[in-house]
Design a protein that fits this description.
Blueprint lengths: L12 E4 L20 E4 L6
Antiparallel strand pairs: 1-2
Length: 46
């Protein structure tokens, strides 16, 4: 029997928006005029 590979996820940053609940959050950014911010940790940035 083959071994199942292990997948490990790591946080590489944060996405910050004013939305605090799933309900009312747009699925696609083109459906919102709200600004957000993507923060990538320095060790993963260019």
């Amino acid at each position: 029997m083959e071994e199942t590979p292990i997948i490990k996820y790591e946080v590489i940053g944060y996405i910050r928006t004013p939305f605090t609940e799933k309900k009312g959050t747009p699925i696609q950014p083109s459906y919102s005029s709200t600004d957000g911010l993507i923060e990538i940790f320095p060790q993963y940035g260019t």
